[in-house]
């Protein structure tokens, strides 16, 4: 997939060789066209428009079962609203210590749930394990009023470290959740990247493994501002619609978000864009691993690389105009950096970055 001329650097004041996040890039031409088309005429507001009405059927077809799908405009809203619906105010949500809901959402899950407790658990490569969840649950006393009551397990797919849960790993976590009568939520901000890696259908990667609710991300992979909360059992929807309204995410012109989500999944567009990002990421990682003193910190399974690079290389890259995050401070002459690639990252940016890193 060639870098689209319509998405060239003039749109991106952040400049070239930007590997800080997939959020830095724009939207696909098809999604932009869908938004433009949705602007025509007058239609009912607050989700009563035809585009939003059809979205449920589109998502049900995508997941091969009847689902309840609700558009929102941010991943934080998707996570916080989903979790607050599944978890009571006196409940506890178990998640990885580096999960977005625990580190990067400014307390939104606790705020939206009116006080639910986030219980963070360490795990290699950004993943929870059944044993770690079982160990965490030993610290609760179910039915005792002095304790928050475990209600939800939340996993991230792909994880914050660019790794991907295998179907077996998800099903084993779901089994623990079911054993303890907990709901399983999946933060799918980069769900498409994970699916490409797994080679599975959306159904085979979610509800068939025991996932109850999914934060379905599109913004990082070619949309403007479009996410959805997907419930695989309508009984779990409960008071979600009221929570969405109270939280300020019932959009008056929701058709513009629904149009993005529909265009996103049409013709497997979401998987094609994710596949390009993943392929570029793998190519970059393989080349970086061959640099003297470099080390890839975690398996590269989606569109993010965490690599220890010699400080001299980091300095040279920044001097050459590359942008990326230092994930850990320098130690022993190396810095752990994070590099995230997008569907719209130019091939020449990857080539230039690697040339500078090698020389």
Q: Terminal Cα separation, in Å?
A: 28 Å
The CATH architecture of the largest domain can be named as 3-Layer(aba) Sandwich
- Specify the overall morphology: globular
Structural class: alpha/beta
Total number of β-strand segments?
Answer: 11
Mean pLDDT: 95
Strand order of the largest sheet: 1-7-6-5-4-2-3
Order of helical and strand elements: HHEHEHHEHEHEHEEHHHEEHEEH
Give the % helix. 25-40%
Return Rg in Å: 21 Å
* Number of helical elements: 13
Could you give a quick summary of the protein structure above?
With 359 residues, the protein is α/β, with parallel strands linked by helices. 37% of the residues lie in helices and 18% in strands.
Description:
The structure is a single chain. The protein is α/β, with parallel strands linked by helices and 359 residues long. The protein folds into 2 domains: 5-27 and 269-358, Aspartate Aminotransferase, domain 1; 29-268, 3-Layer(aba) Sandwich (Aspartate Aminotransferase, domain 2). 37% of the residues lie in helices and 18% in strands. It has helices at residues 29-38, 50-63, 75-86, 100-103, 108-112, 130-137, 167-179, 191-198, 240-246, 255-265, 269-289, 311-319, 347-358, and strands at residues 68-72, 91-96, 117-121, 149-156, 183-188, 213-217, 227-231, 295-296, 304-310, 325-331, 334-340. The strands form 2 sheets. It has a 7-stranded mixed beta sheet, with helices on both faces. The protein has a 4-stranded antiparallel beta sheet with strand order 8-9-11-10. The radius of gyration is 21 Å and the shape is globular. The two termini are 28 Å apart.
